[in-house]
Amino acid sequence: MGRSRGGWTFAALVWGCWGYALLPRLVQTATAPKFRTSVGAEQASLTPLAQLVQLGLLLGVLALCAFVVVTHLRRVPTDGAGVLLLSAALFAFGTWRDVVAGAVLSRNDLLIPSVVLAVWLLRPRRRDLAVLGWVVLASAVLNGAVGALVPGGLFRHEDGGLIAPEKQILPGGVLVGVFAQGNNLGQLLSLGLPTVAFLPRRWRAPAVVVVAGVVLWSASRSSLLAVVAAGGVFLLLSRGGPLWRGAAAAASLVGLGAVLVLLPLLTSDPTAFSNRGYIWAVSLDAWRDQPLIGWGSGYYTAIGQYVNPLGGTAWHGHNSVVQLLVTGGLVQVSLVAVLAVLLLHRCTAAAAAGWSWPAAQVAALFVSGTLEFSFGVVDRQILMTSVLVPLVAILVSRPDEDQGSESPQAPPDAEGEAPGRDPEPVGPHLVGAR
């Protein structure tokens, strides 16, 4: 069954978001030196060509989102309004908090709410989601090629020498691809890997091997854990009847969510988890000074310019809950908690109906978010195709697509008939926790 017009529009939107996140960085990596720097240090600005590519892709994506809105004015969905209102509240609060903190807004800040609205209106069907799998495979191939062919594709010192951190897994250097360091690349791929289940059957195993191999090369251990978690959930939900699958999905996600929330709160050793214990303790102390609304999404970059307890070595809180608390306080965390409850409900219902992907996707997000910053409200634009678009798709998937007897391990073959502000600098940087 071919794609509908909405399916082609969704595919164009996903590829546009992918291009915006990766192609300017690709141009920058190929045309300018790239090396590790500290938080607060002067970062290499985008080259004129990279700026032009970024602007063109941004305007293209925004224009496509505007097209979706205009073409849906006469048939706005009546269900799922709560999801849209919650998303709007999250973004409005995050933007207001940043303005209060002195942030200067730009056209880039229109991207996330525009993409959310467009996906909400398009309501992609399962067969339309195959584009997410192709995008993660393309990301793995692209970044692997950059690592093999471009000097800036590996983690390097300012003098050009390779950095060999203790966590390095494969010989020959740590892959960073078009990004600043391996954790960003690992997050992009590990959080997108569950969508490989939407690819035609003959492509799934090769895609898993390629994507997992590039994650291994990036030496991002938290991303490897996310890969294992997603695979474990797929396997767990591949057996049993509806009651078992629903209960197993709920128990898995509640357990992983509890670890996400409690680990930084209960960790007392500052050296735990590659110095994340110290980052969490200092970050939570900062949150206690502004518990209700936090300090804004630019907090870690801002303090890196001055003498601070983190010493300019942490670009973020290295835990999504810690990050949300520090940047948006209890207000932001409360709104995200409501979103998490909605996701849990959707994942449980989908698993009971024989669709395992939503639970696997959220499991990977929870595991990655335990040790990294994987979910942003007004930032983390590099993860739009791996986090933002999949989450909205889970929340607004069409009711008639939630039923059926498809394999719980994956949706039907695509060839079959069945139904802020981005905090990552362009230049590489040093992250205190590895």
Mean model confidence by pLDDT: 86
Number of strands: 0
Can you tell me the residue ranges where pLDDT is under 50 for at least 5 consecutive residues? Answer: 399-434
Number of DSSP helical runs: 14
The oligomeric state of the chains shown is single chain
- How far is it from the N-terminal to the C-terminal residue, by CA? 45 Å
Instruction: Write down the secondary-structure element order.
Output: HHHHHHHHHHHHHH
Q: Structural class, judged by helices and strands?
A: mainly alpha
Helix content: 55-70%
- Proportion of β residues? under 5%
User: Radius of gyration, rounded?
Assistant: 20 Å
Shape: globular
The biggest beta sheet reads: none
What does this entry look like structurally?
The protein has a domain at 5-131 and 234-401. α1 (5-31) runs parallel beside α5, α5 runs antiparallel to α6 and α10 crosses α12. The chain is mainly α and 434 residues long. The protein has 14 helices and no strands. The longest helix has 33 residues, at 320-352. Mean pLDDT is 86; it is low at 399-434. It has helices spanning 5-31, 48-71, 81-100, 111-122, 130-149, 182-192, 201-218, 221-236, 242-266, 272-288, 299-303, 320-352, 357-371, 384-396.
Summarize the structure.
With 434 residues, the protein is mainly alpha-helical. It has helices spanning 5-31, 48-71, 81-100, 111-122, 130-149, 182-192, 201-218, 221-236, 242-266, 272-288, 299-303, 320-352, 357-371, 384-396. Helix content is 59%, strand content 0%.
